[in-house]
Design goal:
Length: 498
């Protein structure tokens, strides 16, 4: 462990200075405990008469009944023509988009992730064949910083023959190809399970990947679990009847599809089930030029019968069964599947060097109950207000990821992003960047971006980092088994007055 700590310090100090990126504002982490039905501040929710995707969702509900929240999320994010990540003119990242991530705020984040990979490559005794993998690469900013960092060390650079990117959006694939041109060979995959297992040393990062995967939302009652779903508003149902139905669990509308649901009060919320690309392709955009009917407005309802998934998903972890009645819980089977796939990928083939990985996301080492939320233009909006035009997200249950990896891989942490970055050498790296800044204004921007990464009231505490290792190990797994470095934190925060 002490050897790895020494390697980390030396590698961080040896990085060449490069031009840092401008810092932007970040809002996505701020409202992690807000309810699902709307903003918690004086932010006006986005109200559209009925977007194209909203009509698509309404038509689907009219035809087949209420949607699980996972299904709703899948359509909103991945519809091939109307989905959040599918439209070429949808700028979702950066100051012009809906949210900004750590790599967009400061280059130091990606550089220190690259340093961590370098220490693990050294601990694996410098395997001659290695590859990088990223789940949800966004614009390719993080991977670009990692590659630039590793290129500083010739042996490591020469060992990397390929970069594998898990991305379904053709629009983002094009952006990533531009960002990462001139580097190792790029290969894209739809799922982590599609990446071939080889005898190469695999270094994987998943930054803000799991938070975007669809979730199911359940409520535990004295009779078991019931699922929260997305339905249409029913004008013919009076508020009094809706309230009575919610209390008694009775039907709220004469339609057949409504006989098995009861509405949730405005302060409550819900979740959908995953849909394949083929499923979403079959839901065609509405071509009607007539005004959108009022029934395109969406609401959250509770399934009286519990729902098909309520008999399976809450049984997937003993932690869920132990919750008391009245609890809400968000479960992502896609996250479980992806985490299991990560463990198998890092294990590689028999006799190979295995691999390491990092999961960086907001969440905790426990199940969340009311974290599902939406962002547009850096403001929190209602999750049902503007489907297809908002970023949908939920806190990550790191314990569930660990359970999915099971005996295949060794998962440590999560630790806070603050502790991870400080122990990897944020303070000395920041010194180098500040020394080489072109102007006092640039120095302030660099210092501000670094402070935000480790802010105890923001990203530094909200974001967690989990380390993963599979295959033979020769040394410890720094910094996940090391105590926090308070001195380094003070050093980084001391740059505030530059």
């Amino acid at each position: 462990m002490s050897c790895l700590r020494s390697h980390t310090s030396l590698l961080t100090r040896s990085l060449r200075s490069s031009v840092p990126r401008a810092c932007g504002s970040f809002r996505r982490w701020q409202s992690s405990s807000a309810g699902l039905d709307g903003p918690t501040s004086a932010v006006d929710a986005v109200k559209s008469d009925a977007t194209s995707l909203k009509r698509i969702i309404a038509d689907s509900i009219k035809a087949t009944g209420p949607l699980t929240i996972a299904r709703y999320m899948s359509i909103c994010v991945g519809h091939p023509t109307e989905g959040y990540y599918s439209r070429p003119n949808q700028d979702v990242f950066g100051t012009r988009g809906d949210f900004i991530t750590s790599p967009e705020i400061s280059q130091v984040f990606g550089e220190l992730v690259g340093i961590w990979f370098m220490t693990q490559w050294l601990a694996a005794r410098k395997p001659q064949r290695a590859r990088l993998v990223e789940l949800g690469p966004g614009r390719g900013t993080l991977m670009s910083d990692i590659l630039r960092t590793l290129s500083t060390f010739k042996e490591a650079r020469d060992s990397i023959a390929s970069v594998h990117l898990v991305e379904n959006s053709e629009t983002l694939r094009s952006v990533q190809a531009t960002t990462l041109q001139g580097g190792p060979k790029l290969e894209w995959h739809g799922r982590v399970q599609d990446i071939p297992k080889t005898d190469e040393f695999t270094m994987l990062v998943a930054h803000e990947f799991f938070d975007a995967l669809p979730i199911h939302v359940f409520e535990k009652t004295d009779k078991g679990f019931t699922e929260v779903m997305v339905d249409l508003e029913r004008p013919e149902t009076s508020p009094e009847a809706s309230a009575e139905a919610a209390e008694t669990g009775g039907a709220v509308a004469p339609a057949a599809s409504q006989a098995n649901v009861s509405p949730l009060p405005p302060s409550e919320f819900a979740s959908p089930s995953p849909a394949s690309q083929a499923d979403m392709s079959s839901i065609a955009p509405s071509t009607s030029s007539s005004p959108a009917p009022s029934s395109t407005e969406l609401r959250l309802v509770r399934s009286r019968s519990g729902g098909a998934y309520s008999q399976v998903l809450p049984m997937s972890s003993p932690r869920f069964l132990a919750l008391p009645p009245g609890s809400k819980l968000e479960i992502s089977p896609e996250s479980w599947s992806a985490a299991h796939g990560v463990a198998e990928l890092l294990r590689g083939v028999e006799g190979g060097p295995g691999g390491v990985g990092l999961v960086v996301d907001y969440g905790d080492d426990k199940v969340a109950g009311d974290s599902f939320r939406a962002f547009r233009n850096h403001k929190q909006v209602g999750v049902l207000d503007d489907p297809g035009n908002c970023d949908l997200t939920a806190d990550v249950d790191f314990a569930y990821l660990r359970e999915a990896m099971g005996p295949i891989a060794h998962a440590l942490g999560p630790i806070t992003q603050r502790d991870f970055l400080l122990q990897l050498g944020l303070a000395p790296r920041l010194d180098v960047l500040l020394k080489n800044a072109a102007s006092p204004e640039r120095r302030r921007e660099i210092a501000s971006g670094a402070r935000r990464l480790v802010d105890t009231d923001g990203m530094g505490q909200q974001y967690k980092v989990m380390g993963i290792s599979a295959g033979p190990r020769t040394e410890g797994f720094y910094p996940f088994e090391a105590p926090a470095v308070e001195g380094s934190q003070a050093a980084a925060e001391g740059k505030e007055d530059v």
